[in-house]
Amino acid sequence: MKKLLITAIGLMLWALASIAQTEMSVVTGIVRDRETRTILRQANISVPGTNISTVTNDDGRFIIKSSSPIDRIMVSHLGYKSRYLMISGNEDVKVWLQPSSIMLKEIFVAPDDPEEILKMALSKIPDNFGKESKMLQTFYRETVQKRNRYIYIAEAVSDLVKTGYHRSVNVDRAVITKGRRLLSQRQTDTLGVKIVGGPTLGVFLDVVKNREYLLNDEELSHYQLRMLSPVKIDDRLQCVIELVPVAFSLPYALYHGRLYIDYESFAFTRVELELDMIDKEKATQFMLVRKPLGVKFKPKEMKAVITFKTENGVSRLNYIRSEMRFNCDWKKRFFSNSFHSVTEMVVTDVFQEPHALKGRSSFSSRDTFYDKVLFFDDPDFWKDYNIIEPTESLENAIDKLKKTLKNS
């Protein structure tokens, strides 16, 4: 009996030790400007020595998890000094970032020909971004608001295979590992239109690899390049090149944009794009996939931010945010409704030995994200995954949409 008791106690201790080992280390917090005290959106949060990372939400808040203890985090943002914070256990932290200053000598020694800088950056893409395939674990979220009320929310963990940057994007693949969707059950909230988006954003909106999208000789010939004042990202000096559209007789809309390029390595670090809205029909052709008969689609705004991160001398995709605003008019209705769509994807982990994502498991640009995932109500749905912390307004919207689904 004594031996049995000792064995049972030993098994219990082993089980408790196993649970302790698998318990996630979780750090939450908010990031603000030290001088103005304003919140900082889209700040990068990472765990040094790992590939684990995320970004702050529109409330400036973040959550980051690791199966190993987190003893420090690094926080960085465009135009601010990066900061390391020591962490002790699971805690909620306040992070204050100091705006970075540019030294005159840095500007003086920097090259100032935007065409030459861009040409150099393009030639160095295979070296800067690598020729090895990687598996990027990402968190993806898309939302649609009708006026100020959320009517659609979808979230997913997606595995994204990125082949070497000397290869075509057509061989890259995305697959949904885990996802859920919430949709308003009000009949008047039915949108009916399909706009561009989906987890394949990490494939096709990676403009550094998908050169056919923007960064090729033919497309760049439609733009004037202007050098803007340099900034710092991750404490490194960045050249900023403005793209100004100069061709207006094309059958498609162009962008107003900014390219951020590291002065030392000539690696792309950030791309900002905003679709030109002068010709509404051209803008509609780009933004709209399909719509029901009797609906008029009126584009108002489309913009995107793509950021890249350098680890051990090799750059990779880090974060994508695409935002659209548009109106929809229905026949026999007196008023049009305004809609706001936001799509975000952040790389939360990186694996050097990807497995193939082929066939039915992979997600294509023709697939509708809505049809790939189902409604799922579970408070621990994202327990073991890093995500973009939902804003307070989004959390409230999720609770409301869950109630309408349960009552329907």
Note the main sheet: 10 strands, antiparallel
Mean pLDDT: 84
Structural Rg: 23 Å
Helix content: 10-25%
Low-pLDDT parts are: 1-21
Strand content: 35-45%
Element order: H for helix, E for strand: HEEEEEEEHHHEEEEHHEEEEHEEEEHH
Approximate shape: globular
**Taking strands numbered 1, 2, ... along the chain, how are they ordered across the largest sheet?**
10-9-8-19-18-17-15-14-13-12
Beta-strand segment tally: 19
Quickly count the helices. Answer: 9
Structural class: alpha+beta
Task: For the record, give the distance between the C-alpha atoms at the N and C termini, rounded to a whole number.
Answer: 57 Å
Could you describe the 3D structure shown?
This protein has 408 residues and is of the alpha+beta class. The protein is built from nine helices and 19 strands. It has helices at 2-22, 104-109, 114-123, 125-129, 201-204, 217-220, 280-287, 369-372, 392-407; strands spanning 25-33, 44-46, 53-55, 61-66, 72-76, 83-86, 91-97, 134-146, 149-162, 173-183, 194-195, 223-233, 236-245, 255-262, 268-275, 288-290, 295-311, 314-330, 337-351. The strands form four sheets. Strands 10-9-8-19-18-17-15-14-13-12 form a ten-stranded antiparallel β-sheet. A hairpin with a 6-residue loop joins strand 5 (72-76) and strand 6 (83-86). The longest helix has 21 residues, at 2-22. The protein starts with a helix and ends with a helix. 33% of the residues are buried. Residues 1-21 have low confidence and may be disordered.
